[in-house]
Structures are given as C-alpha cells and as structure tokens.
Amino acid sequence: MDLVHRLGMELPVVQAPMAGVQDERLAIAVNEAGGLGSLPCAMLAPDGMRDALRAIRLRTTRAVNVNFFCHAPPVPDPGREAAWRRLLAPYYAEFGIDPGTAVEGAQRKPFDRDACDAIEPFRPEVVSFHFGLPAPVLLARVRAWGAQVWSSATTLDEARWLDAHGVDVVIAQGIEAGGHRGHFLRDDLVGQPPTFELVAQIAAAVRKPVVAAGGIGDARGVATALRLGAAAVQCGTAYLLCREATTSAVHRAALRSDAVCETAVTNLFSGRPARGIVNRLMRELGAMRTDVPAFPLAAVALAPLRAREERSGRGGFSPLWAGQDAALPAAATAGEITRALARVDG
Q1: What's the predicted TM-score (pTM) here?
Q2: Structurally, what CATH architecture does the domain formed by 1-71+108-240+326-346 represent?
Q3: How far apart are CA 241 and CA 231, in angstroms?
C-alpha cells in the first residue's frame, strides 16, 4: 500500500508545517479536503501542543503530522551577541529605540521529553523533524505508538543518512523551499540542489517514500514531482494567503506585491539559513553573514525593530518567508487550494 493510502489521505498533498503563520485551523482544513494537515510545534509550549491537538482530534478523524525542530540548543556567546547589537545600533537610533529595550524573541525549542509527553496521548500518525533527528530514546517513544517518522533532507547524503537511521519517509527539500533549510550534515549550502533534481536523486537511491518540497505551488509542479518518483508533495507558500492561515498583514501585503518575485536565503532573522522575500535588512546587511548569533538567538535583538516597523505597516525587519517561484492564489480556502494542487474539483 502506498504512502497516501496508508495514511488515509485522498490526495498526495501535504501541507507544510509553518511555525508563526498557522495554527490548528489550517491543518484541519487541509485534512478535511483530503490532504495531510500539519501542526508546527517548535514555537509551542507543551500546553499549546495539547490544546491544538485536542482541537484537531475533535474536528477531524484523519491523520495529522506534528512537526518539530531538533537542533542543539545554542551556547550563549556574549561577544557575538554584543557585535550583533552593534551592527543593529544605527537602526535603533533611526527609530529612537532604546538599545536596552528587552523584547522577547520567538522561542524555538528542539523536540524533548516534555514535548513527547505532551503529544503522546494524542498518538499523531506522523511526527516529522527538521535539522536531522532527535535522540534515539525519543524516537523509540514515537515509534512505540505507531507513528511514522519523517525528516527533511537537503542533499542526497542527508537522505542516505536518514534512511540509515530508520526514517519512514524522506522529505526532499529543494533549495527553492521557503522558510528554514533543513540541512544538518554540513552548515554551508553548497551542493543543495533544486527540488526536482533532489527528488529524482533520492527516489533512485533510497528505498523509502519521498515527499517533494520546495517551490511547488500548482498542479503542474505536483504532477512533475510525482512523475519523478515522489509519493506526495509538501506545499507551504501556496497556503500563506488562504483564509485559515494566520499570516500577518505585513507578510500578506508582501506576498501580494511584486516583491514576492525576489527571494533569497538569509540567516539574519534567526541565525540559520531560511528563504524569504528580500527586504531592507537583507539588502543593507547582506543576506548571509558569519557574525550572526547562533540559531535562534539572532531574533532577540531584531524583535524591537520588527515590532516598530510592523506597527507602521512595513516589513523591513521581518522574516517574510516564501518559496521561490511558487504560485499564490489571491484568496481561497485551504480546502480549495488543496484540491487545486491535486486538480480535484468541487
């Protein structure tokens, strides 16, 4: 039985987990349309995970994917943080913001025992990971309730590593993908191929189902990925303007503008490479730098600047995540988008 039928899906469409721009409502809507809805948990506390999964189980009986980061927590580096704040000081002065302003940045925690405790009673059918895999003891707990383990690979070497470590599904994340890159074997982006090339490589080398991810936002892209050997396609940017998404007004405006045509991979907003719409900060500081605090600490010093700009309706200091060359429906429900991706009417 293939991956889609094994999970009770009607369509080969997986909604990408998108922390910060969605909650359980998007996952539920995609599920009810026949795809696989996903809940991003990296920015949720355990109580938030429980509340969201409780809502999902009340609204749909279909399979759900819960997604986690599994990065190593950073070691604080006061010198690096001070240098980062010095680099941002002219912007603080421009907006009249006190450099000592304490604004909490977005929290991004790796999968740990507390998170596992929170989700285990709900027994999600898929648990997916970004940045490799968590500790074996945690994976064993996930497998014990019968969940499939998925993880992202940005290269063939990473796909082979994941296969050797027992994942059930490899997500082939091409360089076009919006949001954070899932690389974990090497820090640079050298050798990370585009989505269709990566899908073909992995499908030929790894005997596990492959889910294509990156720059796919219409039915033609979905069909191409399936022809190349993907069992399903994971789409994220295509859902950012849908009614169920929690995408901010500033982010929505950027996605509707010509700016969406210019994206780049940057580490400025979190400390890890991620693809987003090019904005003021990326143009003036350069999209990639070696002096940015480790993930996810870079976001803390940026938070006051982001908040100030967004109050004025601008996104010059905001992470405007978006994939490359992805089609964007102007206004639609998540169900309509899911069916359109699979060319299903009604």
Answers
A1: 0.96
A2: Alpha-Beta Barrel (3.20)
A3: 26
